[in-house]
Amino acid sequence: MESQSEINKQLWQICDNFKKKTEIKKNYIVYISALLFIRYYDEKSEEDFKRLYQNRNNYYIGDAIDGCIERIEKDEHDKNIFSNIKFKGIKIYRDTGEENVIGKTIEAIYFLSYKNSNKKGIAEAYEYILEQAVYRNDIIKDVGEFYTPKEITQIMSNLIINEESTNVYDPICGSGNFLKTALESNISQIYGKEDNLDYYNILKTRLLVNEINSDNIIYGEQYTNNSMKFDVIISNPPFADKTWKENKMLSEIMYKFKVPQTQVGDYIYVLSMLEKLDEDGNMAVILPHGVLFRESEKPVRRKLVENSYIKAIIGLPENLFYDTRIPVIIMVLSKKKKEEDILFIDASQEYESDRKNNIMSKEHQDKIVRVYKKKEDIENYSHLASKEDVINNEFDLTIKKYIKKERKVEVVNREELIKDVKRLKLEQERLEENIKDVLEVLGYQDIGEEPIIEKEKHNTQSNQKRFYNIDAISIGEKIKEERRKKEITLEEMAEKLNTSVTFICRIERGASYMNLQRVIQICEILDISIEELLLEDRSKINI
After folding, report:
1. What pLDDT, in 10s, does the model give residues 416-464?
2. 530-536 — which CB contacts under 8 Å span 24+ positions?
3. Which residues have C-beta within 8 Å of that of residue 123, sequence separation ≥ 6?
């Protein structure tokens, strides 16, 4: 009997071969999912799959697969499932005499599935190929929305699921990690919605091979029973989404809570979920840090705080997701008005480093859950803030306003320090000279200035190099101007960015380089778009 690791490798090899021999380079998992769905959907489709195997080398095998999918769509009363893919039109790459890759894929799945008749092994192998595809960023887009790391889903489930919880709802399902984790916590019914058809196809397949009922998972529409409420709502909605206005239900929420039309969708999703939450239910949502302090969202924060909906705000470490290093928060909400205090937890330093991502161990997860349930106040880690504290902070929920980190004062040997400074200064001078030489060879300006993007332009008269140089000083001035408009002090800006006042001053003077992540953080704090910060600068581009 084959081991689970062997089954995993074989299914991944099937995916890899299909990817290499077709033009399908990103959503190949959806095509493999379709074949697995046909194989396991019901007894009739199992017979269909056997016939596909017997006719795998037929020229029209792609049409036959598409026919099987159409039959399932009718039986499932789901016109959407796998409707966005067609095996008939796949472009195939092969050497002379080589068998059709579609036929080879059917053959490989046939022998793998029938040789391992226990569906559990195939289910675990499917989990494995999903993780591999996510790790390699082979999902079409927004990997962070599609696949939430299991340690985060476990924390959130343990925070809000209790013995009375019977159902769970995720309005942005992705791959279904939240729903699957909830089932492991003895939830009996799952409900969900997904607007991305590739994600929906994968989720339905994942639930099928895991023998989980997916009747209440829908695509691209709201439940007909709009009055239905849920015990548990848990989700990872898209960050800074501007397309929410296209959704009628979300627009209605916006008018009800008087959210500006120019606002991004973070709180729109939160408010829409609250509408679906039972009066005794609990809810947990992953959000960006910007929702805690953005000035334009202050009226929403005020409403949530005044109604005592927010129970906890938990800061997580950076680099937990596969596609971004940006740290996130978990916001825990409930409609019960027994408690007005808000628990703040700063778990941003509670992680272990892996090769590519940070991970939160079971010990880190259990600590968060324990502190939340016991409402513990731990120095430098957690604090139970009163509603009055939040009001005094003008509804700014930035975690560092409530959990002050004490800086340890170290005794320094003055003479040794002077020696070290002199030594470092000499090293700095040598390094700067070396860097200048390298920059000159590469066609950059002097050290300390913004890099030049070199663009070579050919014409019949000359082969002249042209340089486009973004004026960092103008960008710095814009940051300073917006900061003052928002009445944010240098100290507050430095605190929000987790950096020094000196660094902020250098940015505003145009004397310090910023990477894209830093630009995004600054735009969130100042409540302006990246375009507003950078595009005004076009008139100052030097050519």
Report:
1. 888 888 778 777 766 666 655 555 555 555 544 444 444 444 444 444 3
2. 533/475, 533/478, 533/479, 533/482, 534/470, 534/475, 536/474, 536/478
3. 209, 210, 211
Instruction: Name the residue with tokens 């021999």.
Output: 21
Residue located via tokens 């299909």: 18
With H, G, I as helix, E, B as strand and everything else as coil, classify residue 257.
Answer: helix
Strands 277-288 vs 328-334: parallel, antiparallel or unpaired: antiparallel
Q: Are 299 and 128 in contact (CB under 8 A)?
A: no
Do 30 and 23 meet the contact criterion of CB atoms below 8 Å apart? no
The average pLDDT across 193-214 equals 93
Compute the Cα dihedral for 367, 394, 275, 523 and give only its sign.
Answer: negative
Tokens in use for 413?
């040997």
Whether 365 contacts 154, CB under 8 Å: yes
Q: How many helices (H) and strands (E) does the chain have?
A: 21, 13
Single pTM value for the model = 0.74
Sequence-ordered alpha helix ranges (H) in 343-413: 362-374, 387-392
- Average pLDDT of the residues in 227-255: 75
SS3 (DSSP) at 532: helix
Which residues partner with 455 through β-bridges?
466
Strands 217-219 and 189-194: parallel
Phi, psi of 311 (to 5 degrees): -100, -35
